[in-house]
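Z., the sequence and structure:
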Amino acid sequence: MVDRNVAVAAWESLFRAQVAIMRSLAAGFPSRDISFNEYDVMFNLSREPDRRIRLRELNSHVLLTQPSVSRLVDRLVSKGYVCKLADPNDGRGAIVELTTTGLAVFRRVAVAHMNTITERIGDSLNIDELHELTALCDRLRTRDTRSPD
């Protein structure tokens, strides 16, 4: 069993690093066309088959509340970057799809954003540390958190 104080200290360090990096990336976000949060939604859509996902599922991929995601999607719809479609399997649900225009904007911003990420992270850690960080974060993210029966 791991010492509770060590686990809490590790969590605190991870959390503070994440907050500091996210603030830095948001402050230097390289676009006036879309916000940092809009980029996050477009990023998630770009990774989905056919660049579309149910709105309910999109909510689980971003760090925003459901009403905030709905408003953000509506803004992206008004810009022509995404469209909302009725879910053919659930009349109450909606599907959000990244448009061709939205994909072009996303790709343009993504190149600049990746450069910012590379500068922010790559200047702090070497390649082996980056691989180790990725593996550790993946383990933390994918750990089964259900309580044992």
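The domain at 31-131 is CATH 1.10.10.10 (Arc Repressor Mutant, subunit A). The two ends are 19 Å apart (CA to CA).

Let me know what you think.
H.
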